[in-house]
Write a structure and sequence with these properties.
The complex is a heterodimer. Chain A is 35% helix and 21% strand. By secondary structure, chain A is an alpha/beta fold. In chain A, strands 2-1-5-4-3-6-7 form a 7-stranded mixed β-sheet. The longest helix of chain B has 15 residues. Helix content of chain B is 41%, strand content 0%. Chain B is built from 2 helices and no strands. Classes of the chains: A alpha/beta, B mainly alpha.
Chain lengths: 168, 70
């Protein structure tokens, strides 16, 4: 009985805090994979985010069911063009349950951005994202510099300044 | 043993406040079928009639969507 209670207690304590990446941590290799849905840059079906380290990364965690996520797309495309000469890579990573929803969204809203799919929701759990969408800024060394939750027009100045920081 | 069971019971109560829907788990909640009024247009009309007759509005719902961003 006591042993069973101890096991239960250990399981409970173990479920309380999962390991999470936070600002200042380095993107781990071989852990964060995404399926590539649309990209003009790569032909691979699956990508390890750590393999992109070397270029400043803006990861946008979004979903087709989230209205602010959909609103952020035109703005992200503008930034992709504005920061193209500085090598910024913007990757929109969907956490939709179904790939069909992503493809339907892209068909309705054609985009030049790289679209990936994290069907197991590893990224949101790893980064413990505070809201949808969440923007993750990673510098050329692979260090997570900033995590920003939500997207409104009031956030764009902050997001742009972080883009400038990681592209320096 | 009794003390151990008591402590475990108390801990299980504290566990309840950690159960919350995370932002990435809201896909089902954001579906139209999950909204409180079954037909939005009917609810809008009812609200309009209520406002016209009572000259007051509000208090009938909460703000924010399913994204956790509001």
């Amino acid at each position: 009985m006591l042993r069973a209670l101890t096991v239960l207690l250990i399981c409970w304590l173990g479920s309380v805090h999962a390991a999470a990446l936070k600002v200042g941590d380095t993107l781990p290799a071989g852990l964060l994979f995404c399926d590539v849905i649309a990209s003009s840059e790569t032909n691979t079906d699956r990508i390890d985010l750590a393999s992109l380290v070397g270029a400043p990364l803006y990861l946008d965690i979004w979903a087709s069911w989230c209205a602010p996520c959909r609103q952020s797309f035109p703005w992200m495309e503008q930034q992709q063009q504005a920061f193209a000469d500085k090598g910024l890579r913007i990757i929109a990573i969907s956490i939709d349950n179904n790939t069909k929803e992503i493809k339907r969204f892209i068909k309705k809203n054609p985009t030049a951005l790289m679209i990936a799919h994290d069907k197991n929701k590893v990224l949101p759990k790893t980064f413990q994202i505070p809201a949808m969408p969440t923007s993750i800024f990673i510098d050329r060394l692979g260090t997570v510099r900033h995590i920003h939750g939500g997207f409104t027009s009031a956030d764009t100045d902050t997001l742009r300044s972080w883009m400038e920081t990681i592209t320096q | 043993m009794k003390a151990c069971c008591f402590v475990l019971c108390i801990l299980s109560f504290t566990g309840c406040d950690m159960v919350r829907v995370q932002p990435w788990e809201r896909e089902t909640l954001s579906q139209k079928k999950m909204q409180m009024p079954p037909r939005v247009s009917d609810a809008f009309l009812d609200e309009h009639i209520y406002f016209s007759k009572e000259a007051s509005r509000g208090g009938s719902g909460g703000g924010g969507g399913g994204c956790g961003c509001n």
